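Hello Y.,

Per our agreement to keep a running log of every chain we model this quarter, I'm adding this entry. I've kept the format consistent with earlier entries: sequence first, then predicted structure.
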Amino acid sequence: MDIRKIDGQISVAPQITVAEIADIAKAGFRTVICNRPDGEGNDQPSFKEISEAAEKAGMQAYYQPVVSGKVQDEDAEKFREILESAPKPVLAYCRSGTRSATLWSLSRAGRVPLHDILTRTKAAGYDMSGVARRILNDGRTPSDATDGTFDIVIVGAGSAGIAVAASLMTRAPDLEIAIIDPADIHYYQPGWTLVGGGVFQADETVRTLSSVLPQGVHWLKTAVAAFEPTNNRVLLEGCRQIEYKRLIVCPGLKLDWHAVDGLVDTLGKNGVTSNYRFDLAPYTWELVRGMKEGTALFTQPPMPIKCAGAPQKAMYLSADHWYRTGALPNIDISFYNAGAVLFGVKDYVPALMKYVEKYDADLQFNHNLVGIDGPAKKAFFQTKTEDGTVKIVERGFDMIHVCPPQRAPDFIRVSPLADEAGWVDVDQNTLRHKSFENVWSLGDVMNAPNAKTAAAARKQAPIVANNVLADMGRGAGVAHYDGYGSCPLTVERGKIVLAEFGYGGKLLPSFPNWLNDGRKPSRFAWLLKEKLLPPLYWKGMLRGREWLVEPKVVKPEIVN
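Predicted structure for the entry above:
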């Protein structure tokens, strides 16, 4: 038998046999639903045979035949009625299981989020993206009317989305460009580390989204529900749809706070904080200033994460404050990293290790935070012993700075644009989708092996803009992305190790060594981070000014 569980109430399967009924009953199923018409195949048992065997095994059986490829709206409603009244758990079957999975998906419309339906059916081996619009329309067949057609549609109005929109408008202001994002606020996220270190105020890192969008770009203030790349459509919440000639996908990533047991319930209190949230970064500084003794823990989850240096930046700035105020000897600092190294590019590790030693920080590698008991001030880490045995390590704390696990947004992970790991699948050089030629991606959501930083998005935006226009016959040729990313590692107040690197860890410094050697802490890099990068972000990157990142054409045409 090939039984595929969808949720706790229902599983689906390809055609079952009479001989398998006894085992199905032993597996705990109390109902079977047949969604295959009798006589569809020469080798299928009749429903009467199945129902008689099911009755003998103490199960109920329902016959709801549906013609392959013709699941009607009323079929989904009938399936919902059966599922609600039938004893659970239920096993539904047809020739391959697809019709049963489709009926379940449509029957859950309006009751279960679309991404959850697509995730569950995808895990069971069934792709329901073809009925996404019907699910969005409460399980009913929608009209084919569109709510607009644009030359270019951009999904996401974060750093990457606004920057690529600005670069496009600078080059071709006559284009009809739509940017989709339900947010009202735009954040300068690289500044949150300095908020947590007492350098910036939180309000310095936030502006209204309307104030930073490029003029002439259409803002669709809604959320994306799904993609139909074969039809050049984006499905929006409320069963609306828009069409595009070119699509750019850059919605960022999802901070999965719920992946750590107990974390959501204690964030912002009990000494639990994170610079990865705008409203919590000030609490980090509050905890640091108030701490005179005790235990301070800093965590880093498995990669990938946005700005891989940020978890240790929080540790360095906190430790530097305690060092300057004389409290450091009374504070036990530990850095719990799910990975095996302090930083992924070895050239920068020696400089960082000097600060680890200066602050007497204990490094614990291969320790992944899996749970927090805030009131008890206990953290739980999963690790492995030398023989491979998994164990849980408990550690008390007075303060803990948490970096949450991160992944692609749900609507991306279940889409046809995603690779097996859930990230948008692009060519790492052109940032063009590997399967859909009129789709590009940049920023944190795509699967190129580069660091997920704002500096990377700043470099990628003009490259994608150039390549999209080249594909439209409005550019000289394609440009390649070298994997550039930058991580200003704030090792103390007033000094930074400016890590700049590309694919394979190749060093890609922006300045000559006499001005700034990125392998050493420098005052210049601090001034760059504190004084120059914020205005460069607001007045340069978000306005299409490509200082130091103007793309270089390397081919006469785009080759997929």
